């Protein structure tokens, strides 16, 4: 039997497919730029092995390596929008449901005696 990491076992099928697609996209971007894995890994300050795992969509690669590789490829600009609270319609709806229906005014204690 293969050596399956705990990270791989914990992934849902959708998450695993997303990682594989992300890895394939990174590989295609690297190839389009005429870069070898060794060149990209060196420029991203990571190992050739880590880049290979990233391109295969393995979940064990750290997020810092992902961001650094995307930065070297010039593809990191949109990362600030990932999980943007303003785009989280479900979260905003749930927050609205938990908000109090009315706000009570505080009792004033302005008795002068």
Automatic annotation (TrEMBL):
Superkingdom, taxonomy of origin: Bacteria
InterPro entries, per the entry: Cro/C1-type_HTH, Lambda_DNA-bd_dom_sf
Gene3D superfamilies referenced in this protein's UniProt entry, alphabetically: lambda repressor-like DNA-binding domains (1.10.260.40)
Any one GO molecular-function label of the UniProt entry: DNA binding
Region span, Disordered: 87-113
Protein's UniProt name: Helix-turn-helix domain protein
Annotated ranges, domain HTH cro/C1-type: 26-79
CDD domains with a match to the protein in the record: HTH_XRE
């Amino acid at each position: 039997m293969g050596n399956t990491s705990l990270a791989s076992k914990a992934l849902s099928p959708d998450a695993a497919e997303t990682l594989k697609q992300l890895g394939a996209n990174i590989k295609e971007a690297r190839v389009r730029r005429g870069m070898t894995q060794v060149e990209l890994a060196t420029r991203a300050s990571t190992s050739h092995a880590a880049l290979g795992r990233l391109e295969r969509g393995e979940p064990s690669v750290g997020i810092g390596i992902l961001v650094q590789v995307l930065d070297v490829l010039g593809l990191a600009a949109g990362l600030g929008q990932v999980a943007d609270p303003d785009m989280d319609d479900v979260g905003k709806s749930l927050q609205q449901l938990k908000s109090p229906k009315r706000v009570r005014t505080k009792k004033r204690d302005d008795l002068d005696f």
